[in-house]
Amino acid sequence: VIDQDTAKILESERFDTHEYHNESRRLQEFLRFQDPGRIVAIAVGDSAAKSLLQGTIQMIQERLGSELIRGLGYRQAWALVGVIDGGSTSCNESVRNYENHSSGGKALAQREFYTVDGQKFSVTAYSEWIEGVSLSGFRVEVVDGVKLNLLDDVSSWKPGDQIVVASTDYSMYQAEEFTLLPCSECSHFQVKVKETPQFLHMGEIIDGVDMRAEVGILTRNIVIQGEVEESCYAENQCQFFDYDTFGGHVMIMKNFT
Fold this sequence. Notes:
Helices cover 9% and strands 28% of the residues. By secondary structure, it is mostly beta strands. It has two domains: 21-142, no CATH class; 145-223, Elongation Factor Tu (Ef-tu), domain 3. Strands 7-10-9-8-13 form a five-stranded antiparallel beta sheet, with no helix packed on it. Strands 1-2-3 form a three-stranded antiparallel beta sheet, with no helix packed on it. A three-stranded antiparallel beta sheet has the order 4-5-6, with no helix packed on it. Strand 5 (120-130) and strand 6 form a beta hairpin. It starts with 20 loop residues before the first helix and ends in a 40-residue tail after the last strand. The mean pLDDT is 89.
């Protein structure tokens, strides 16, 4: 289940509707209590039809707009991406038959959405049999880059420039580099990056503490160079850091001497 406003994954569940009627009832209740507008992705992992109750089928039809669930058979690969109470027009689904230990390709369902900030993202579900092995999964991905909201005017930054977003975690390894994309709709305080962030970077002041990640341009940068020590810090620390990293804490303040 995905939040339609933020693209955040809210819940992830497994239901064995092949072996157990109770699992079918649990799926029915799971869908019943989802808020309207929530995005739901479903994919068959093995076989789903044997103990799939009529009430559950009806729930999937009514709340997600599925037209293929009623005819789902043994080991058929089925995938769906839909919106709670969005009807059949908001539902994308696909099914493939199981023959000779294979489904002959993926049952692939995909739809694109926009967050409240205007960021485009896609939700994908897939189900497949290959040589008797079932494969299924989900993806939530940013489409056409990620937009970052910054504090300062960055209108001088250009497409192709490299930037770094500092870690807001305890780990320095969560600093990330990105490439800027063209963004005609961006304000002077926004940029769009090509890569998808692998880590969470804070962007708020929390309880009076400024937790916002620093963002710096690497393509046209100012180098502040300190004196290199003649020996390792403390005892044998250099064995862990034989490369350059983003780190430290240097503050440059206007009109300060």
